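Figure 2 data, in text form.
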Amino acid sequence: MDKKIATVRLTDLTEGKSLFESQGISIVKVTHDGKVKKLEIPIKSSGISELVDTFQKKAPQPPGKKCKVEVGSEQAVDMGIGKTQYVYLSDYTDADYLEQKEKHDSDLGIKIVLHGLDVPIKDKEGNLVEDDDKKLEIMKGMGITGEQFTQIVDDISLLTKWEDKKESDFLQR
C-alpha cells in the first residue's frame, strides 16, 4: 500500500489557528511474561520549541581555561593570532561542567516528555496530575526505562522534523 503525505499550500496565516501543531504516536516496546507488546502513546509537538528555547538560555557554560598559544602553531593559525599570547578557551572536559550539562540535558528530556504526552497522567485515585515532579514520579513508578523515555523524546522531536527514513517510518504507523 503506497501512502503519500498530503501537500497543503498556504494562502494565509491567521492568528489563533493551530496550524503548526503536530500530533502522532510514540511506539514503545514492553515485554510481559516473555511476550513483546507495543504501547502506542499519543504525543504532540505543541509548546516544545518554546520549552527547548527556554532551556537553552539556561544551559551550563564550560569554564574558561587560560592557554598559551604559540605563534605559527595550528591553533594560532585557526584563531587568526599573529603573535604568541595567552587566550581563554572553553574547557569542554571540565568534570563539573559535564555533570551540569548531563543534568541539564536530562531535565530537558523529562520536560519534553511531560509536555509532549497527549494523554492525561492521573494519580491512583484517578485525579488529573498537573505537577511535573509528581508526573515523573508516577511514570518512574510505572517502570519506564531510559530507553523508552529516549524513544518518546525522539518521537516528539520528529513530529515536525523531516528525515527521509523517518518519513517512511511515520507513514507506516
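Caption note: Residues 23-61+94-172 form a domain with the rbstp2171 fold (CATH 3.30.2220).
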